């Protein structure tokens, strides 16, 4: 019985909510009808007559003060709403209405109203949405000392945000430190260096760690009772100190490459020693994991140095060897570095082979994978593509495949085409990116724009077809077409990752909330009324009285006049005049 009663109440509540949603006009007319029926008990006519008499006695100064105050208040609301919308991307009034007024009106969230089966079915999409909102390390990030700092010296602008650099510091602490660092003086110093916010303090700590390795320790080995032999032993060099200096102190790529080679020599030795001891305990295993991360990072950055210095084939070989030696370390996304280098060599067959391995439905996608696949398919038809000819004869099979690949790439990241078509200016890519966000689009276009320009007609094909993607995506973005729905968290994260002088690309383009438009119109209208009332008080007074007369019906005015005359007669006790005298007068 209890369950039946609960079900009946839920059904009744849903019917009421449905009626408020779709039958609000019927409710409105019902309310008006009730007001009309109850106009005598509620003394509506008397109240309206009193209000009309009061309004007729008001001076123009009152209207100036009223409209001026209304304009000021609505202007303040407009300024606050605009600031809140620019900062948080939503209207404050709408957010408060949805959060507090909707539950009072009986509105329920769609997610909470679903049954357990549907919630379990949507768990995969929710997890995917969370993973898509995760911030990733940019596999093509630049060198902080040789590239980012040089940009700051030339332009005076900071290309990296504090949030981005803080994420890098957390990555360094995760990859380059372990629990046994306090046992080695140099590693203990570097463990503190990665937490330093001041770049000069980090560089000084790295030099201090390297100076400790230059100190020689003497160990007494008693061979004979009357003598000793002094054995000279060098402490192992600190590879992470060389990494920090190569990243932040080196002012050129060549200097960074020299420091990374020294780091490779030290890191390879540490890796071989920890590899032999990794099965002796959990501490040795953690140290070996740290040394593996250090070695992979060094080799990857050396390959990037070779790519920057024009030795592209050498860089490709180093990346292939690294992927073969450590096939399970996919967190560095070395295949994206390899794709960019192969495109520079125009080895499109090798690019297709890499895509066949990593463009899999079970693997996470990226703008590099999706747009590189689109570039390869566009390359087959772009040189002969003509929109006029395609509109007359239709698209061929190869052209249809190219267009579908472009639509797939644009659906994954809709911000990239504006940078590839140079509709928006590029900036230096951040050290971290948000997949499907503006930061990932900048990182991709910064390195791959030259590859698209090299393929004849590819940008023309992109220009003619990329906007057609949005006709295929359901609106509003509750569902996707080929991928999961576009996450709503990208704008906030991109604003944290990208510098303030860059205008963040937002998708879907948010329209101004209703309350901003309403307050803007109200502020303008009341300000105009205040100005007109101040300049033309008599004319605006006549206009106000005319508006009052319009709102008051003729029948109501006659009734008001008769009631006033009757009250005057009662108060003065005037006897009623004869009928003949009345006509004579």
UniProtKB/TrEMBL annotation:
Keywords: Glycoprotein, Membrane, Phosphoprotein, Transmembrane, Transmembrane helix
InterPro entries cross-referenced by the UniProt entry: ST7
Primary site of residence: membrane
Highest taxon in the source lineage: Eukaryota
CDD domains cross-referenced by the UniProt entry: ST7 (cd11557)
Any coiled-coil regions, as ranges: none
Subcellular location: Membrane
Cellular component GO terms, alphabetical: membrane
Similarity annotation: Belongs to the ST7 family.
Descriptive protein name: Suppressor of tumorigenicity 7 protein
Gene that this sequence comes from: ST7
């Amino acid at each position: 019985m209890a369950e039946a009663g609960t079900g009946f109440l839920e059904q009744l509540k849903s019917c009421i909510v449905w009626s408020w949603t779709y039958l609000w006009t019927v409710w409105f007319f019902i309310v008006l009808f009730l007001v009309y029926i109850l106009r005598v008990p509620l003394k509506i006519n008397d109240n309206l007559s009193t209000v009309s008499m009061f309004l007729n006695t008001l001076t123009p100064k009152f209207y100036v003060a009223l409209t001026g105050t209304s304009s000021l208040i609505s202007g303040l609301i407009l300024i606050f709403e605009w600031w809140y919308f620019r900062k948080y991307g939503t209207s404050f009034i709408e957010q408060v209405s949805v959060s507090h007024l909707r539950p009072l009106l009986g509105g329920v969230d769609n997610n909470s109203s679903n049954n357990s089966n549907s919630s379990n079915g949507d768990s995969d999409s929710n997890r995917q949405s969370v993973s898509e909102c995760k911030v990733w390390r940019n596999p093509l990030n630049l060198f902080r000392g040789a590239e980012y700092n040089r940009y700051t010296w030339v332009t005076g602008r900071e290309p990296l945000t504090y949030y981005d650099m803080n994420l890098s510091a957390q990555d360094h602490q995760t990859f380059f430190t372990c629990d046994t660092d306090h046992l080695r003086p140099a590693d203990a110093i570097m463990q503190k260096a990665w937490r330093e916010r001041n770049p000069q303090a980090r560089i000084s700590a790295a030099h201090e760690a390297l100076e400790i390795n230059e100190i020689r320790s003497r160990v007494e080995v008693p061979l004979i009772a009357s003598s000793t032999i002094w054995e000279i032993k060098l402490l192992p060099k600190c590879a992470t100190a060389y990494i920090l200096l190569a990243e932040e102190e080196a002012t050129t790529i060549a200097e960074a490459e020299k420091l990374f080679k020294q780091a490779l020599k030290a890191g390879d030795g540490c890796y071989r020693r920890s590899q032999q001891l990794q099965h002796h305990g959990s501490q040795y295993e953690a140290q070996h994991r740290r040394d593996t991360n250090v070695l992979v990072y060094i080799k990857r950055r050396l390959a990037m140095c070779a790519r920057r210095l024009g030795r592209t084939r050498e860089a490709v070989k180093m990346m292939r060897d690294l992927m073969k030696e450590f096939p399970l370390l996919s967190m560095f996304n070395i295949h994206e570095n390899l794709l960019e280098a192969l495109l520079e060599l125009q080895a499109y067959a090798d690019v297709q082979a890499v895509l066949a391995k990593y463009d899999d439905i079970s693997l996470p996608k990226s703008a590099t994978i999706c747009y590189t696949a689109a570039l390869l398919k566009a390359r087959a038809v772009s040189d002969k593509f003509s929109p006029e000819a395609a509109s007359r004869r239709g698209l061929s099979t190869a052209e249809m495949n190219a267009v579908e690949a472009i639509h797939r790439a644009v659906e994954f990241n809709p911000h990239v085409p504006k940078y590839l078509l140079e509709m928006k200016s590029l900036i230096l890519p951040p050290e971290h990116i948000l997949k499907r966000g503006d930061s990932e689009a900048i990182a991709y276009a910064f390195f791959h724009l030259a590859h698209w320009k090299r393929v004849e007609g590819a940008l023309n094909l992109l220009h003619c077809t990329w906007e057609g993607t949005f006709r295929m995506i359901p609106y509003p973005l509750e569902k996707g077409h080929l991928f999961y729905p576009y996450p709503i968290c990208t704008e906030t994260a991109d604003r944290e990752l990208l510098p303030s002088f860059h205008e963040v690309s937002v998708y879907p383009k948010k329209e101004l909330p209703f309350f901003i438009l309403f307050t803007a119109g109200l502020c303008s209208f009341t300000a105009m009324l205040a100005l007109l009332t101040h300049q033309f008080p008599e004319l605006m007074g006549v206009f106000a009285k005319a508006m009052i007369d319009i709102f008051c019906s003729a029948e109501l005015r006659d009734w008001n006049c008769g009631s006033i005359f009757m009250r005057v007669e009662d108060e003065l006790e005037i006897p009623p005049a004869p009928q003949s005298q009345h006509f004579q007068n």
